[in-house]
Amino acid sequence: MKTKEIREMTSEDRGKKLKEMRTELMHERGVAAMGGAPPDPGKIRVLRTTIARILTVQREERK
Question: Could you identify which of 12, 14, 25, 60 might form a hypothetical disulfide with 47, taking C-beta atoms 3.0 to 4.6 angstroms apart as the criterion?
């Protein structure tokens, strides 16, 4: 998800998306920790960067 798309979202939508992404990240980490091969190995990295982008936009709007 690109930063431009995140900025166009409402703050409520961003919060929902953040919660969804964190849940998905926990699931992916759980699969990796149990030794299972994830279907998409780069997904954890993408989830982490997207979460960081959402948090950055939220902090910018607070100022």
Answer: 25
Burial class (CB in 10 A: 0-12, 13-18, 19+), 47: buried
Domain span holding position 16: 3-62
pTM of the model as a whole: 0.87
Interacting residues of 29 by C-beta distance below 8 A, sequence separation 6+ = 44
What are the φ and ψ backbone dihedral angles of 38, each rounded to 5 degrees? -70, 145
- For 6, residues 6+ apart whose C-beta sits below 8 A from its C-beta are 14, 17, 53, 54, 57
At 12-47, the pLDDT tens digits run 999 999 999 999 999 999 988 888 777 788 999 999
Quote the tokens at residue 40: 């998409």
CATH number at residue 46: 1.10.287.310
Length of the chain: 63
